[in-house]
Amino acid sequence: MDDFTEQGLRDAIAAAESPAWSVRAAAGRRLAAASQIEGVAGVLHRLLLDAQDTGVTSDTASALLARRDLAGLRAVLAARAVASDQGTVDQLAAELDCDPRWVTGHDGDELIVQLRSLVADRDPDVRNESQLRLARLR
């Protein structure tokens, strides 16, 4: 995980506002790699729901899922639960469905354990999205 300097964090947050999709996508990847994403959760959420380009959504979601932790999965589920643009909805679903942990035995169990944990999340959107993902497995 990336440990940002204060300036590096400001630069990545500023890049998240760029008119260029590739700069926003790079900012999403960079911010998703921060050791503590809670402080930039709002920026990551905006990038996951990028209205201009699903490439930003894809890169940010993929980087968050690559963390393999609850914080990354939670961020993607929260965005998926409130996404209204059909392209964004589809892209977030595709990133969740294509998480490599689904196809690798023990790693799939790890993801299921994380989803079960998020069923009790404080955010009802995250709870509901986790329940939907688990229901699809049954």
Describe the protein in words.
With 138 residues, the protein is an all-alpha fold. It is 69% helix and 0% strand. Helix 2 (21-32) runs parallel beside helix 4 (54-66). The longest helix is centred in the C-terminal third of the chain and has 14 residues, at 124-137. The chain is globular. The termini are far apart. The model has no long low-confidence stretch (mean pLDDT 91).
Task: Give a topology summary.
Elements: H1 6-15, H2 21-32, H3 41-48, H4 54-66, H5 70-82, H6 86-97, H7 106-118, H8 124-137
Helix pairs in contact: 1-2, 2-3, 2-4, 3-5, 4-5, 4-6, 5-6, 5-8, 7-8
Which labels suit this protein?
138 residues; mainly alpha; 8 helices
